[in-house]
Amino acid sequence: MTRQELKNHSIYALVKGLSLLMRALPLPWARMLGAALGRLFFSLVPYERRKALDTFATAFPEKDSAEAGRVCRAAFASLGRGGAEFLRFPSIREAELRSWVESVDGLEHLRAPLRAGRGVVAVTAHLGNWEVLAARTALEGRVAVVAQRLYDARFDEALNEYRRGKGITVFKRDTSVKPILRWLKGGGILGVLADQDTRVDSLFVDFFGRAAKTPSGPAWLAQATGAALVTGFIFRQPGGRYRMAFQKEIPVPSRDEPGASLKGVVQEYTRRTEEAVRAHPDQWVWMHPRWRSRPEEAPADSRPGDRGGAGAQGEGAI
Predict the structure, then answer these.
(1) Would you say residue 252 lies in a domain?
(2) pLDDT tens-digit series, residues 58-111
(3) Residue 255 lies in a domain
(4) What count of Cα atoms within 13 Å lies in the side-chain half-sphere of residue 201?
(5) Gap between the Cα atoms of 56 and 226, Å rounded
């Protein structure tokens, strides 16, 4: 067994063990343990801590180091808490899942296009607990997500099985876009995470006052299928439960419209994402280097244009 194989096996065994532990513990204890592990990771892994602090400083240059440390530490705790909840998915039933979410605002923005027989591209962010957002939304209609294939096939299958157990269809990001197009044309909901700088078709739009490489796939999919493009986010409330909020549909220009561009669409869902992150900065994944790509380094046709294709879907859940 190579060193990498040993590492992968150890991580898989650790996650499987944590999953069993999180399911055995009472929910409040599982959440507390997950948050503690997140804070411990922040303290013990300087590379990840520095990435988070640097990203936060880019977004909020006016904040001092004490505030940056407080928010980023809380963000790691939020990620750990959300991870603990996700690892409990195999053992929770619909009634319990519903109890985790105290309110859902703007549900009519999701239901109206579905009633009209249209699909919905639901853009969200790595904010709050996006896995709970996907699972709770699956109680309203057929939900699919696009997941990046992980480095370990066993780990990858386990995580996607947790999603499928909550009624979520999983499409792999590195496969054909045709099943996704059929899904949307058939009136399904597709959840897309579009708040990170990844190797997918993207456009540079404004995010916290800086040009940020942002996936353009959600806009392209809505344009190609006639699906409604909405945004939806989930926020943890002080009592531990969640509030979900969907916003009104973003108009997407027809491909036949003269001078049609998707850049304004990408900018709008990015603007809404920034608004959500500003409202709850302690629940976003600051450890991701959001501005690592530079506009001047991008191919000329992707800097100002409106490209977007099969690879532009975000990874993970809704």
Answers:
(1) yes
(2) 999 999 999 999 999 999 999 999 999 999 999 999 999 999 999 999 999 999
(3) yes
(4) 21
(5) 36
What is the number of domains present in the chain?
1
> 3-class SS at 151?
coil
Cβ-defined contacts of 91-94 (< 8 Å, 24+): 91/23, 94/139
Tokens of 303: 């800097």
Helix boundaries (H) for 60-177 = 65-87, 94-100, 108-115, 130-137, 153-164
| Sequence-separated (6 or more) residues with CB below 8 Å from residue 291 | 55, 58, 197, 207, 210, 211, 212
How many Cβ atoms from other residues are within 10 Å of residue 87's Cβ?
23
Looking at residue 284, what DSSP letter applies? B
Question: Could you give the CA distance from residue 162 to residue 86 in angstroms, rounded to a whole number?
Answer: 8
Say how many Å lie between the first and final Cα of the chain, rounded.
Answer: 36
Q: Is residue 318 part of a domain?
A: no
In the DSSP assignment, the letter for residue 295 is G
pTM of the model: 0.90
* Domain of residue 39, residue span: 3-312
Residue 317 lies in a domain: no
pLDDT digits 0-9 by tens, 4-50: 778 778 788 888 899 999 999 999 999 999 999 999 999 999 999 99
